[in-house]
Fold:
Amino acid sequence: MARKKQYNEDDVVEKAMNLFWKNGYEATSMQMLEKEMGINKFSIYSSFGNKHGLFLESLKHYKTKVSATLLKFKNGTNGVEDIKQFFYDSISSNFKVGNQKGCLVTNTYNEFSENEDQLIKDEMTSFMGNLKALIIEKLQMDASKDEDTVIKQANYLLLAKHGLAAAARVNTAQEIEDYIEMTFKNL
Amino acid sequence: MARKKQYNEDDVVEKAMNLFWKNGYEATSMQMLEKEMGINKFSIYSSFGNKHGLFLESLKHYKTKVSATLLKFKNGTNGVEDIKQFFYDSISSNFKVGNQKGCLVTNTYNEFSENEDQLIKDEMTSFMGNLKALIIEKLQMDASKDEDTVIKQANYLLLAKHGLAAAARVNTAQEIEDYIEMTFKNL
DNA sequence: AATTTATCTAAACGTTCGTTTAGTTATTTG
DNA sequence: CAAATAACTAAACGAACGTTTAGATAAATT
Structure:
């Protein structure tokens, strides 16, 4: 046979993901990706097909990246307190290196809301659906909440999470902390 | 002299604004604007300089459009209840004709958050600053709130407003109503 | 070591973008 | 009515986009 790839696909997907995360899909050009991933356009296309394929792969990579956080959330036994902790965990990456902003899934959801790309929208919808089911599960741990309250609070928290991810792109850590605390004050 | 313009600048700016509102700045092309505004590229450029100029003019137009809502908010005497009503007023355009989504100012703030366009960012910052001042003013109407609580609640509401505008792009009227009600439940 | 073949570089592809320019049309004024 | 000139149409501009292709390079097999 012939020479081997001089890069690891997982490594370069991680770098692509970070760039998409920071700038969004449209605002990230192949030229920027080339530079950030450290490999040539040809290599990107032979590994991922096209920009769209690379983005989908980045989304998958993101999901595995946050799966630990999600599992921790899923396994929690403290009801509402687990949800609150999940909110904190979700935006913790904002204040680490790399300048990632908000939640990649939510950002993508927003960017593609007017778009017709069903493949990506399906990915988002399933992710949001899973999240809602988990939130409901945690809320139901409090036996004093009736079903109607659970649904209302779940919708509230889902929108709050959505809003948080958007706001996290432009607000300070202190503002975000105040926001989360206030959100959970009366649940 | 020579012939007069066959269009009214205010009319075509309104149409441009609606398109920007729906799609955002980058996703709105001159070709789309040409079609929506009903005039030629040449006319757009002679009236507004360039795409950026047209967008700034659309933002100004948006501000005058929402000035009535803002004035109503400013003149309110019911404290927190005024803020809540303002939230409802802010997203009411979502459920009218035209498919506008969320709040143009907030959408712009989000789209340009990673951008270097200081002119637009300044416009956004001043708008947000005014809003925060008004919210604080209304919160202070309740004499029982100490200064620290007022600041915390103002930050909370500002982020909630931000999140609401983002979420309003993708959620139903019922979900949004639930969200607003829950947001104000304990202020 | 020679041959094979996948991976690399780099240049070019066709489109679309925002923008400009040349030429035509129509209205106002003398 | 004729001259002047602003507003119009339509075509073309260079730059950047995502994508493809041709040719050089290097590693694995015989």
